[in-house]
Structures are given as C-alpha cells and as structure tokens.
Write a structure and sequence with these properties.
The protein has 429 residues and is mainly beta. Helix content is 11%, strand content 51%. It has helices at 9-14, 18-29, 34-43, 162-165, 178-181, 199-210, and strands at residues 2-3, 61-79, 96-108, 113-124, 130-142, 149-157, 188-196, 222-227, 242-253, 257-270, 277-279, 282-284, 293-304, 309-323, 330-344, 346-348, 351-365, 374-389, 392-405, 414-428. A 16-stranded antiparallel barrel has the order 2-3-4-5-6-7-8-9-10-13-14-15-17-18-19-20. A two-stranded antiparallel ribbon has the order 11-12. A hairpin with a 2-residue loop joins strand 18 (374-389) and strand 19 (392-405).
Length: 429
C-alpha cells in the first residue's frame, strides 16, 4: 500500500521518531484505521499535527492495488471446447494473461465525506483487446459523527451476495461462482444506497480483511437502495431502477470464531441484448419486451471465517431473462444455484497457506449474455493459496467441470468432464 506524499509531508516524516515511524507502518498495513492513526499522533509530544487540528486532506488519501498474472491449461474435455465467461485464460489461443490490474485511490476528504476510485488496466470491453476501465467511482457521505449511517452514491458494488462483495484480491478460487455472479456480472452498477452499521461492527468487518480472514469489507449491517440494473459502465435501458436490500451480521462465537449470516434480495426488469441466430437454417432475432423481463432474486449467505477452518456457503433463487427452448423469444424463467467452499488457513514463519475446495451449481438464464441463453453449470475446484509475504500470493487450482454449456454463441453446446489446471501470481502494492 502506498500513501500520497506531497512536499512538506516528506520532511515531517523524515524527522519522525521510532514511535511515529511505527504508527506509519501500522497504518500502511491496515492494522489501525486512519482515524486511530490521527488520534495516536495527536497524543504524541513530537507530532507535527496541531493538537486539535485536522489532518491535511492529502495525508488521508491512499494509493494501492494489486495485479493478477495467470496461466491456465485445459487438460481434457468431452464435447464442446470449454468456455469460462469470466476467465479469458481458459482459451486454446491464450497463454499468459493479466486477469486484473487494479489501482485504487481513496480516502477521507473530510470527516463526513470519503471517496473511492478504482481503475482496471486490463479490463475487457468484449472485443479482443483490453483497455483502461472505471470499476468504482463513488462517495460515502456520513450522516452522523460516528458514521453509523452512510449514503453511497456512484458506481460501486451492488450489495447482493457475500462472494460478490468480497474482493478478488482476497478470494482463493480464481473467479466468483457463476450462480451469484450472473446476478450482477462485474459486481458493480450506478446506484444510491443507505447503509447502517454500528462502529464496533464496522471495526470487526475491517479486521476480517486486514487479518487475512477473507472478509467482504464494510457494506453495512443493513443496506437498502437502487441501482441501474444493466451492469457497470452501461447505460440504463428502461428508466426503471432495480431495488435491493441486504442484511448481514458477523457474530462472535467464544473468544475466537466469527460467523457471518446474511440475507439479500433485489427486484427489477432487465433488458437483454439480442442478436440474430441461425435456427434450422433461418435467421431469428429473439423477441423481447421493450422494458425488459422480470429480474428478481433472493439469496442466503453463511460464512465461518477460517481460524483455522472456514466455510463459505451461498444459494440464491429467483427469476430472470432466459431464451425459450425454441429460441424465438426471451421470457422470465425460474433459476437457482449456489456454492459451498471449505478452506483451512495456517500461518507461520513461511507465510500464510490455505488449501481450499469449492463446488458450484447453477441452473438458469445468463441475462448478461446476448439472447440470455440457459446456463447449466456443475463444477468443483481444489486449490492451494500460499502467501510467503504480504505483497505476494501464489495460487494453484485444479478444476473438474462435470457440466458447463457455452453461452457466447448459438447453439450453446455443452462441455462435460473437463479438467483444467491454473496458476496465478498476485502482487499487492
């Protein structure tokens, strides 16, 4: 993690005594918050801040990020070539891939206003090339001094699903399970949300991330709001926002363990992009409603944080746009699916090690794909994540696909009994 340093600030830091240097390290590691850092510096007799004066705005901003460098190889498969919508490294024509190249700038402008901006230097626009893309750009406005109530405005993650809110920087498996991610591919959208969480719970949520326990971050104990519904960096198509609500609470069990239980749901109408396809020798463009089809889901989440053994489980049910079996039109159809993951985290002189296993299942439409074809997914992963240092993480994953159908082009053929191996190196800064 890097801190933005301007002239004058560097001189002050160079004169800092060992205690102030220790505070700088703890802040950089995320062990203490910016607010705690400010309070401790004001108590120090040699502080360069006025005893009751606010910290300059430029000292409140952080520049950080991570990059994921990946290689995948399909070892065997039956049927159609394996297709992974969210992982372009699973491709016969690909070798090495930078999956994510994230840079984040954020901080507290004032005690009531915080901003967050994240860009991806290796985003895909759907073509063969990659580009620089906005991932997040939002403001958090605190409605009270304790920041118990916050309003979030801008492009940010939609509060639906623990696995969607958890950063890819924290996750063990390479990609999110499709059952929850197909609800909000890209995880983000333009929206407005009201979030509530008591200060002690906000501190607990932050600790679950800073301690490497695979937390999802602070999205409130309760969040309600509305979002465009068409996905990140896309214009709305019907002028009707989706409405979403989420409640999730991290309980403590004994002196050590933390369990988080959550429930969430959203409702709206989604306008699917259509494309002409050849059906029995005839070109057909599936018919759809101009205002979109009904798109509504409810999901439950349960997380036992790894100390050292952990479990993540989520399932969702609902209805969403799906191409009919005769390929003539798009209608709202039932869907369901979820995932179950176990992992075991150990730390020692050689860093942190976490073996994990995950199973995912989904049966329903993929609304973000052209024509919203039906998707059938049954897949399992076994992997090992090792982080010899906080700035480096190496993950190896073996995946067996029992069944997965292609959703990029008609006739949406199916792959069965596919085996693949992937290796990823992630560096944090």
């Amino acid at each position: 993690m890097l801190f933005v340093v301007l002239p004058g600030q560097a001189a002050a830091q160079s004169d800092a005594d060992p205690l102030l240097q220790l505070l700088d390290v703890l802040r950089a590691q995320g062990t203490i918050t910016v607010e705690q850092y400010d309070q401790l510096r004001r108590l120090h007799p040699n502080t360069h801040l006025a005893p009751d004066g606010p910290q300059p705005w430029y000292q409140r901003f952080q520049l950080r990020g991570y990059t994921q460098f990946r290689f995948s190889e399909v070892l065997s498969e039956s049927g159609a070539p394996l297709e992974m919508p969210s992982d372009r490294s699973v491709n016969a024509n690909e070798s090495f891939v930078i999956r994510r190249g994230r840079f984040i700038l954020g901080g507290n402008v004032t005690e009531r206003l915080a901003i967050y901006a994240q860009s991806d230097f290796n985003a895909s626009t759907g073509a063969t090339d990659f580009s620089l893309q906005m991932r997040d750009l939002y403001a958090d406005i605190a409605l009270d001094d304790a920041k118990t109530f916050r309003v979030r405005l801008g492009q940010s993650k939609v509060p639906f699903g623990f696995i969607n809110l958890q950063s890819s920087q924290q996750r063990g498996p390479f990609e999110r399970p499709d059952a929850l991610n197909f609800a909000v591919e890209g995880e983000r959208d333009l929206g407005a949300y009201l979030m509530w969480a008591p200060a002690p719970i906000r501190a607990r949520l932050a600790e679950l991330v800073s301690r490497g326990l695979k937390g999802s971050g602070d999205y409130g104990v309760v969040a309600i709001g509305a979002f465009g519904g068409q996905g990140p960096n896309r214009a709305d198509q019907n002028g009707q926002p989706h409405w979403v609500a989420r409640a999730s609470y991290p309980f403590t069990i004994g002196a050590r363990h933390i369990v988080e239980l959550g429930v969430q749901g959203y409702t709206g109408r989604f306008v699917t992009t259509t494309q002409a396809i050849m059906v029995n020798g005839t070109s057909v463009t599936p018919a759809r409603s101009a205002v979109g089809e009904r798109d509504a889901r409810v999901a439950v989440s349960a997380v036992w944080y790894p100390q050292p053994f952990g479990v993540e489980a989520e399932w969702n049910w609902g209805r969403g746009p799906q191409l009919t079996t005769d390929a003539q039109r798009i209608e709202s159809a039932p869907l369901n699916g979820g995932s179950f993951q176990t992992h075991y985290r150990r730390t020692g002189p050689r860093g942190a090690w976490m073996p994990f296993a995950r199973w995912q299942y989904y049966d329903g439409g993929r609304k973000f794909a052209r024509n919203a074809p039906h998707a059938a997914i049954d897949e399992g992963d076994i992997g090992l994540e090792c982080a010899p240092w906080s700035e480096l993480k190496i993950t190896t994953v073996f995946t067996h696909t029992f069944e997965r159908n292609r959703t990029s082009a008609y006739p949406y053929t199916t792959t069965r009994n596919a085996n693949r191996l992937g290796v990823q190196v992630q560096w944090n800064y």
